[in-house]
Amino acid sequence: xxxxxxxxxxxxxxxxxxxxxxxxxxxxxxxxxxxxxxxxxxxxxxxxxxxxxxxxxxxxxxxxxxxxxxxxxxxxxxxxxxxxxxxxxxxxxxxxxxxxxxxxxxxxxxxxxxxxxxxxxxxxxxxxxxxxxxxxxxxxxxxxxxxxxxxxxxxxxxxxxxxxxxxxxxxxxxxxxxxxxxxxxxxxxxxxxxxxxxxxxxxxxxxxxxxxxxxxxxxxxxxxxxxxxxxxxxxxxxxxxxxxxxxxxxxxxxxxxxxxxxxxxxxxxxxxxxxxxxxxxxxxxxxxxxxxxxxxxxxxxxxxxxxxxxxxxxxxxxxxxxxxxxxxxxxxxxxxxxxxxxxxxxxxxxxxxxxxxxxxxxxxxx
Length: 366
Fold this sequence. Notes:
Strand order of the largest sheet: 1-2-3
């Protein structure tokens, strides 16, 4: 059975067959080429390369640009980039393109895409009520596709150059107050898997980093914890997801965090009853983020905190550090941010409050 729009079929001999346009005869009749594989995925990859090759032939023989559409070019780009990007990034790109780009622009010939088409795409995203941040991220992906086409001389112009995007909204970080944090920790200490909450509050770990945490990443003698991996649920399609253990979110996310005496005691107590490779596990496998979130919501409800989410714990950690006069560069390293500027952008309001307090102290001293 063919998958819609791909010209890939399952043969009676159980192989997959992919069909592509190879050339046109003088009378205009199409001559097809074929590729074969024992899996759908293998056949699709072969077919993408043949479609790209055909595009190049058309370009050189007929003196014009890539003849395929946006969807075909995008899929080719993903296969080219696949060896150099994370599996999670590859899956995210696939999902975003299929859900937010192809329905509006996928069938448009690559060379015929104008800035008006890209502006229309942005309007389409706005009509979907996507956040400004999501729109900027989607546009970055689309711009990368067209930039690559320019580099490979597949198109004559870049339609993404003259496009205005909605202004990004800066979300105000709302950390827990000290009183709220103490209430939450008090409940977490006596509830099942409450340790995940305490680690987030005292070490600023992301939920995926907590799920992926292994005992081998903890050096009890040197009193340090290595953040190396993340465990996350990846979108394969609009309805299907898979769990994947992969490297940390970014290069800077791969970091070392010192362990306080309180965290050492907590982790040693956990290790006494845990023979798995993972600090938080279910039947020897990492406890997935959904389950961590489930326990979090049970605990925060018992603490009477009905309007908080797990990621606020990380912001609370950073805020407590700022209140303790820890430098921005140290906070940036502990959080695994790409730069101190990113930390300043995220915590601008809190930093401003601290500066104001410092000036008041100075004036009182004078």
